[in-house]
Amino acid sequence: MASSSTPKYNSNSLESSSSKRTLKDGTNWEQNEEIPRLPGETRVTDKDVIYMCPFNGPVKGRVYITNYRLYLRSVENDPVVVLNVPLGVISRIEKMGGASSRGENSYGLDITCKDMRNLRFALKQEGHSRRDIFEVLTKYAFPQSHNLLFFAFANEEKFSENGWMVYNPMSEYRRQGLPNERWRVTFINEHYGLCDTYPSLLVVPYNATDDDLKKVAAFRSRNRIPVLSWIHPETQAVIMRCSQPLVGMSGKRNKDDERYLDIIREANGQISKLTIYDARPNVNAVANKATGGGYEGEDAYPNAELFFLDIHNIHVMRESLKKLKDIVYPNVEESHWLSSLESTHWLEHIKLVLTGAIQVADKVSSGRSSVLVHCSDGWDRTAQLTSLAMLMLDSYYRTIEGFEVLVQKEWISFGHKFASRIGHGDKNHADADRSPIFLQFIDCVWQMSKQFPTAFEFNEQFLITILDHLYSCRFGTFLYNSESLREKEKVTEKTLSLWSLINSEKSKYTNPFYTKELNRALYPVASMRHLELWVNYYIRWNPRIRQQQPNPVEQRYMELLALRDDYIRRLEELQLTNNSKIPNSSASSASPSQMMSQVQTHF
Questions:
Q1: Does the N-terminal or the C-terminal CB of the chain have fewer CB atoms within 10 Å?
Q2: Are 399 and 413 in contact (CB under 8 A)?
Q3: Tens digits of residue pLDDT in 43-87
Q4: Max alpha carbon distance in the chain (Å)?
Q5: Is 0.85 surpassed by the pTM of this model?
Q6: GO cellular-component terms in the record (predicted)?
Q7: One of 242, 375, 444, 473 is an active-site residue; which one?
Q8: Count of CA atoms in the C-beta half-sphere (13 A) of 467
């Protein structure tokens, strides 16, 4: 058993201690002999193994297991091969081979990860070497299944910024100009009595009483009533979110719900109908009637128009990601790459989510109409649509801090089921509730950042870091399914926020091409021709793909080309707007001459 003493070092050193050469299979080549550990991280065991690297062949080494990570260091390679994997990333641990296995390296462990890679370790058959490491790994990778706390509760890192201070709901609503004479803040859910998956503070129409809200809650799935997410500063049209109405097979109606939607429509003086975007395919919404759900029918809601966005459910998305993983890890089949990628339907799903969000944003901005967004329960596809539409319409959310607020607000506080969708600390890898909904959202944000390279303050590393710590359980940010459960577990008191790490070293996550602009709406092109597979995330573990990536000079040139294309597109927008060919079109804050000057400066 290895010593449990923890070396002292700066809490940021693990993030910044990148080796002299890093391969995309997650192995670092470095000369430093010290095993990095975070404050609060303790070594549990270590064992001699052979890492069956799918790219470089068998690697003899020693694997160290702590209460946070699996850390492998080679013993014969020069330079040293290092594998550094947070245990929260592990989805499944299986025993490979049995006592009668005779093939070379046929006895050991297979580890399936949530971040698009698998690990295989061969062990000696003598003694109980496999049983010991299997039991330790299972215990610390799946703490919830063993009545243990997440590592986040043991993490003793210190940061210069307190990430828990980033989001204050009242401050965010005030930034939007709320409350006002048409919208009010209600504390009816202060103790989560109205809806246990909603935040304690909600914004609702001024003319709706708390008694009205209780009656509406009875007719909405999980009591998730329509509440305000965002208000347009000029048109005063709003984005509302909720869950499906409980119509059922008998076509039930609820006068309070019908009246409440009318109050929402009237809140911005709107004469036209309220637009309802149901994220589901039509056939799924109809099928939901059999389980007591449904949608807003024309007879019951004559002042509303309903559109289905054809975004598939969590099970379809889970299978799509599985297919994607099959074609990107460990090897990419070049000869059938395009057809293989198409068969996963992953980019098709990204397209549908982006297309839906564009419709929401355009209706609020150009159509000057309030919209109501829901799916079934209002915590998966609904969060994707509202947050992406808000990102398109509000430049604040394109800053580092603004994006953190967006994630805290639309995803974390409004009850996206992170624990269920990711399976934090849970050994039940086949749980049907698991699904890459948040990953899809981040992918959509990346697609937007590629099309608008100057519009976002944050860079690609910012998005990848968020996804890495979505799984790591190093921070409390994404733990548990709802605000009420986080409050019960005292997450903000007992754990650190991911935003503490990021905001303490912002320069690492800052886009050098960022140009601050106000009130510029971004409408990405959501056609398959303009969408790309995010290679630097999905195929980052493959060193051969890494070798094919452009060198820094080529990368800089490509970024400048994208920058130029973005400026040209904006110049065209301005020209068309000045000629009044596109009414209500968004315009850049910079003049055409200023833009061209900036482009020439870069080149």
A1: N
A2: no
A3: 999 999 999 999 889 999 999 999 999 999 999 877 788 999 999
A4: 81
A5: yes
A6: filopodium; late endosome; plasma membrane; ruffle; sarcomere
A7: 375
A8: 22
In three-state secondary structure terms, 23 is coil
- Residue 410 to residue 241: CA distance in whole angstroms: 10
Q: Could you list the beta-strand ranges (E) of 286-421.
A: 304-308, 371-374
- Whether residue 433 is annotated as binding a ligand: the answer is no
Give 15: exposed, middle or buried? Use CB within 10 Å, 0-12, 13-18, 19+: middle
Which whole-number Å values give the CA distances from 586 to 230, 463, 579, in the listed order? 18, 26, 13
* pLDDT for residue 576: 59
Mean pLDDT, the chain, rounded, equals: 88
Is the per-residue pLDDT at 599 higher than 50?
A: no
Cβ-proximal residues to 335 (8 Å cutoff; 6+ apart), any chain: none
CATH class, range 43-141: mainly beta
What confidence tier does 155 reach under pLDDT thresholds 50, 70, 90? very high
Q: Which residue type is seen at 266?
A: E
Helix (H) / strand (E) element for 600: namely: helix 592-602
Q: Is 378 annotated as a binding residue?
A: yes
What per-residue string of b and e applies to 268-297 under the rule 16 or more CB within 10 Å gives b?
bebeeebbbbbbbbeebbeebbeeebbbbe
Give me the amino acid identity at 150.
F
Q: How confident is the model at residue 455 (pLDDT cuts 50, 70, 90)?
A: very high
Residue 143: name the closest of 347, 544, 419, 521 by CA. 419
Spatial distance between the Cα atoms of 226 and 213, rounded to a whole number of angstroms: 9
Residue 376 known to bind ligand: yes
Sort 107 into a burial class: Cβ within 10 Å, 0-12 / 13-18 / 19+.
buried
User: What is the tens place of the pLDDT at every residue in 347-371?
Assistant: 999 999 999 999 999 999 999 999 9
Place of tokens 């998966």: 380
CA-to-CA separations, 328 to 61, 111, 341, 537, in angstroms, rounded? 26, 17, 9, 11
- The answer to whether 295 and 244 have CB atoms below 8 angstroms apart is yes
Q: Say yes or no to pLDDT of 15 above 50.
A: no
53 is catalytic: no
Is residue 579 part of an annotated ligand binding site? no
What is the separation of C-alpha 116 from the centre of its chain, rounded to a whole number of angstroms? 15
Domain boundaries along the sequence of the chain: 43-141, 169-539
pLDDT at 435: 98
| Helices and strands of the chain, counted as H and E runs | 21, 16
Handedness of CA 440, 446, 452, 458 (dihedral sign): positive
Quote the percentage of the chain above a pLDDT of 90. 77
Is 229 within any annotated ligand binding site?
no
Taking the chain, what is the end-to-end CA distance rounded to the nearest angstrom? 59
CA torsion, ordered 537, 539, 540, 543, to nearest 10 deg? -170
